[in-house]
Amino acid sequence: MRALVVDHSSSSHLELAEVPDPVPAPDEALVRVEAVSLNYGEAFMVDTAQVPEGSVPGWDATGVVVRAAADGSGPAPGTRVITLGLAGAWAELRAVPTATMGTVPEAADGGAISTVPVAGLTALHVLRRFGQTLGRRIMITGASGGVGRFAVQLAARAGAEVVAVSADPAQVSVLEALGAREVIKHPAEASRPVHGVLDNVEGEQMVAAFNALGPGGTLVSVGHSAGQDVVFPVGAFVATEGRHDRSISTFFLLADPRADVREDLTWLAAEVAAGRLDAGITWRGDWSRHAEATAALLGRRLRGKAVLEIS
């Protein structure tokens, strides 16, 4: 099969090459890939040589099952699916555990659905950590990115008053259309305290976002797009009236290797297919244009998701 293979001698650190077909484990299905979506994190890891030479990277992909899992745990051959894994998506064939695979409506746009796994699941699972969000204020930093866009929409649908943080003035109307009640350039500009923060940025924005939490509030750190250290001033954690019982937690989507996300993936895919969730694709093309896509992503020239179609 053909795949995008890590080649650190190349300017893009990737090369289209012939590699052996993957051999599925008993609980894995073999999937012919239709489209993949790119995440900043995986592109950064490839670009900075954190991914081994000769490996096939990629987390998110849609495709069609060509061989069902030997243990009978997954969908039958011919089923359209959405898949998630720590590697192997940027290829014509992918072996993927059935526990991290959801089904896709037949008429759905595979490219749009491919944006769901990492970004959509992260947004969904972090919002669940906040508990009941109906009528509560939820702040999303980095709101114009992949995770941020899904989080804004899902939080608004759950009845939250969404405070979206984006430094790009062009994103104000976009984020308002997705459900944001308040769009600000920096967490320090929040008009009132918030119950929860989904932080995609870290750095000094994370400090300001923590400061915006009300009593009992939680900040969940998801990303670190700022590339800055997080330095809290003296007294930041002193509990006072209106500033007590606040917490910070970290998040990793696949922390539990036994995690079963098939129901969540299937639901999110159906919502995107029905137009109830906007995937926010801002770049799309054949996978032969991978260097162009990753350069735009790493250069912060994209607001939303990039999709490669496997020809």
TrEMBL record:
Domain of life: Bacteria
Keywords from the named record: NADP, Oxidoreductase
Domain Enoyl reductase (ER): 9-308
Tagged with keyword Repeat: no
Pfam families registered for this protein in UniProt: ADH_N, ADH_zinc_N
Record-linked InterPro entries: ADH-like_C, ADH-like_N, ER, GroES-like_sf, NAD(P)-bd_dom_sf
Protein name per UniProt: Zinc-binding dehydrogenase
Originating species: Amycolatopsis thermalba
